[in-house]
Amino acid sequence: AVADSLLKQFDYQYVEETCSKFIQIPQDAPNYNREEWRRIEVPTLIIANKVDLLHPYRYGKLLSNYINNSVFREVPSKTISKELHQVRSKEVINEFLRSHYSEAFI
């Protein structure tokens, strides 16, 4: 399933843009110093799944271990079910916002 998902990226109508994403993603990080992640003080929601190669599950877990006020949630992959991914992602985000922010802001 993971390999099929990755290969489908190259069937995409805009394959050239997709290809450049794969080159840029590994370099696209705001900070590689994990100890500095501990300085993040705002509530942080980290969403991951075990199928997404571009946003690895283990990296999400790693972030959640270093960011003190973080919440880690796993959601189904879009490659398994786009509808379930959307529904569950919205639920997780709404749950996070309700637990950390006033209803007036949601």
Q: In short, what is this structure?
A:
By secondary structure, this protein is mainly α. It has helices at 2-8, 15-24, 34-37, 57-66, 82-100; strands spanning 44-48, 70-74.
Write up this protein.
- It is built from 5 helices and 2 strands; from the N terminus they run H-H-H-E-H-E-H.
- The chain has 106 residues and is mostly helical.
- It has a two-stranded parallel sheet.
- Strand 1 (44-48), helix 4 (57-66) and strand 2 (70-74) form a beta-alpha-beta unit.
- 4% of the residues are buried.
Helix content: 40-55%
Q: How much strand content do the residues show?
A: 5-15%
Largest sheet: 2 strands, parallel
Provide the structure class: mainly alpha
As laid out across the biggest beta sheet, the strand order is 1-2
Q: Write down how many β-strands occur, each being a DSSP E stretch of 2 or more residues.
A: 2
Bulk shape: globular
- Mean pLDDT equals 83
Specify the number of helices.
5
How far from one another are the termini?
36 Å
Stretches where pLDDT is under 50 for at least 5 consecutive residues are none
Rg for CA atoms: 16 Å
